[in-house]
TrEMBL record:
HAMAP family documented for this protein: Chorismate_synth (MF_00300)
Name recorded for this polypeptide: Chorismate synthase
Purpose: This reaction introduces a second double bond into the aromatic ring system.
Family indicated by similarity: Belongs to the chorismate synthase family.
MF (Gene Ontology): chorismate synthase activity; FMN binding
EC number: 4.2.3.5
One GO location term (cellular component): cytosol
Keyword Metal-binding: no
The protein's annotated pathway: Metabolic intermediate biosynthesis; chorismate biosynthesis; chorismate from D-erythrose 4-phosphate and phosphoenolpyruvate: step 7/7
Binding annotation for FMN: R133, S134, S135, N252, A253, G296, K311, P312, I313, P314, T315, R337
Single GO biological process annotation from the record: chorismate biosynthetic process
Organism field: Macrococcus carouselicus
Any Pfam family hit: Chorismate_synt
Cofactor(s) the protein requires to work: FMNH2
Length: 388
């Protein structure tokens, strides 16, 4: 069973991940994982924090001479910004009086962030104790996990890619081939295929920033060459589309997921939604992919297409009304240093969340202790499905 736990505060010394269940004999290097982290760090609209960090992974366990051992893999991402927060983030106990006087105790929760409800839930009167962990800094750890999964999926000839479809209402309405998406999505800072739209998006982000506002958008993740039959219709928690939806909506600020034609299906007749079945000698295929690769909670062999919506960033440089939790007086919310748009970065997080869910289900269906066994099982399965 593949599982992981992440730990670490946004301005603490490091993020730590333990991944359990990666088969032995997978070639794995810190450089390959860090390449994905680098993509997440970037993107137009990010704040100053990302200029401080140089996210790279150190492998602390589970790998020897470049290959996984089958034991837990521990990854560490250092927070370079921690050195600026040594007093504020100290672990050693301090006097209560010093705590109260310490600069930057946060008492004015930001609407839309976890501050107020997190404070109520864990009984924290300094809301920094909430924001340190609710921060999307944690998504760096999740991308590290997803990067390991992508490296494993690559051995099975499965690829996961993503692109940005809209930012702040500016939409890329183009229909693109996989090659067109791949050619652009790592090379431009809004991760959008159409260059003219890219500039409109940058302008839109600049305007929002200037106005002290923030914007969200929509991303698309596509998984290619996934065999039919992953997931199951027999029970709710084995439906793979459901698991992917959970994983994607768990990413900070993600509020919606759809597959294929998504919410447009509500207005389409059945004859235009269901994908006709064909057999082309190479196996079964569909004449369209409106369902985004899923039928009955199972992959159907077509590309998996996941659409996901990110709300605008909650921290606003022109803050909304809030209430001071000490005085109960109405104030403007606190201003923390912040991104004005993180949709491009978040598309990378989504891509890695999908990679994790695919790897998890593959390792459930083809239980394997080592990579050779996994590759062999997948090859036999692909041939069987083709000949069905
Ligand atoms: C990559 C990424 C970067 C983010 N950066 C910020 C940020 O700079 N400021 C902020 O307030 N929220 C940021 N967010 C969103 C918050 O973390 C998120 O809104 C918050 O944790 C509350 O969770 P919810 O929106 O899912 O309810 C970011 C999210 C992602 C995915
Ligand atoms: C640190 C990251 O994103 C952070 C996510 C975040 C939030 O509230 O979610 C708030 C900001 O934190 P800071 O105040 O330290 O700049 C972002 O920079 C990251 O993506 O690595």
């Amino acid at each position: 069973m593949l599982r992981f736990l992440t730990a670490g505060e946004s301005h603490g010394p490091q993020l730590t991940v333990i991944i359990e269940g990666i088969p032995a004999n997978l070639y794995l290097t810190g450089e390959a994982i860090s390449k994905e982290l680098f993509k997440r760090q970037g993107g137009y609209g990010r704040g100053r924090r990302m200029q401080i960090e140089k996210d790279t992974v150190e492998i602390m366990s589970g790998v020897r001479h470049g290959y996984t051992l089958g034991s837990p893999v521990t990854l560490v991402v250092t927070n370079d910004d921690h050195k600026h927060w040594l007093n504020i983030m100290g672990v050693a106990p301090i006097e209560e009086s010093a705590q109260a006087n310490m600069k930057r105790v946060i008492t004015k929760p930001r609407p839309g962030h976890a501050d107020l409800v997190g404070g109520m839930k864990y009984n924290h009167r300094d809301l920094r104790n909430v924001l340190e962990r609710s921060s999307a800094r944690e998504t760096a750890a999740r991308v590290a996990v997803g990067a390991v999964c992508r490296i494993l999926l690559d051995q099975l000839d499965i690829e996961v890619i993503s692109r940005v479809k809209s930012i702040g209402g500016v939409k890329d309405k183009g229909v693109y081939t996989i090659d067109e998406i791949k050619a652009k999505n790592d090379s431009n800072d809004v991760r959008v295929v159409d260059d003219a739209v890219a500039q409109q998006m940058r302008d839109c982000i600049d305007e929002a920033k200037k106005a002290g506002d923030s914007i969200g958008g929509e991303v698309e993740v596509t998984a290619l060459n996934v065999p039919a039959g992953l997931g199951s219709y027999v029970h709710y928690d084995r439906k793979l589309d459901g698991r992917i939806a959970q994983s994607v909506v768990s990413i900070n600020a993600f509020k919606g997921v759809s597959f294929g034609a998504g919410f447009n299906m509500a207005d389409m007749p059945g004859s235009e939604v269901q994908d006709p079945i064909a057999y082309n000698g190479e196996g079964y295929t569909r004449l369209s992919n409106h369902l985004g690769g899923f039928e009955g909670g199972m992959t159907n062999g077509m590309p998996i297409v996941v659409n996901a919506v990110m709300k605008p960033i909650p921290t606003l440089y022109k803050p909304l009304q809030s209430v001071d939790i000490e005085t109960k007086a109405v104030y403007q919310a606190s201003i923390e240093r912040s991104d004005s748009c993180a949709v491009p970065a978040a598309s990378i997080v989504c891509e890695h969340a999908v990679a994790f869910e695919l790897t998890r289900v593959i390792l459930e269906e083809f239980q394997s202790n080592y990579m050779e066994q996994l590759i062999e099982q997948m090859t036999v399965y692909r041939a069987r499905v083709k000949a069905f």
